Amino acid sequence: MAQIAIVTGGSHGFGRAVSVALVREGWTVLVDGRDAAALEAAVAATGALAVPGDLNDAAHRAELVARAADLGGLDLLVNSAGTLGPSPLPKLGGYPLDALREVLETNVVAQLGLVQAALPLLREAAGAVVNITSDAAVEAYEGWGGYGASKAALEQMSRVLAAEEPAVRVWWADPGDMRTRMHQDAFPGEDIGDRPGPDEVAPALVELVATRPPSGRIALRGLLPPAGSVRHEDERHEMAGDQR
Hints:
The protein is of the alpha/beta class. It contains eight helices and seven strands, in the order E-H-E-H-E-H-E-H-E-H-E-H-H-E-H.
């Protein structure tokens, strides 16, 4: 029986790349996104199942979990959806407070709301939560105060969740800079072509889920094999062990 995952923000960027990578590994993947047309186009190419809607909507979060339950349960929740906030990035001295509230609502409150809805299924499956974070949560970058504060809050929430839910793995995973629409919005007019594409980083999240290390902060790129090397399946299974 295929394992079941929810991946938020699956219509583009890292969420879409993660859904592709999981489907290739045999997972059944539910993805969401606010733009129904973009989401349908994404799933047509990925093989995932579309549940359009806004993560800030409690009814949508409930629908996502209900769809997973109908499929047989939930083994993995990947909180990849998020918002950058205003672009160009404003300094904190002039950061619009209404915009900050929106960033915190989407990047923290809605994420926790989905975790809360999913926890009964995740506990039953001894499943896992992956909260996508950023180095802006732990480093001081000019202009990144609003987004970074939301990711810092998400990281602390993840730490506490890991302490409170020992039956569920909780990882707050930093994919590093990527060539995504959000990253381009953070640097309007600049060339970000030197960043890796999300499809280059997504296999690291699959590796994380396969090897199931203890709950904690993960730098995803550190899980990728060195360029030119291949990790054999028997090595992956040996690393995974029986950590469920």
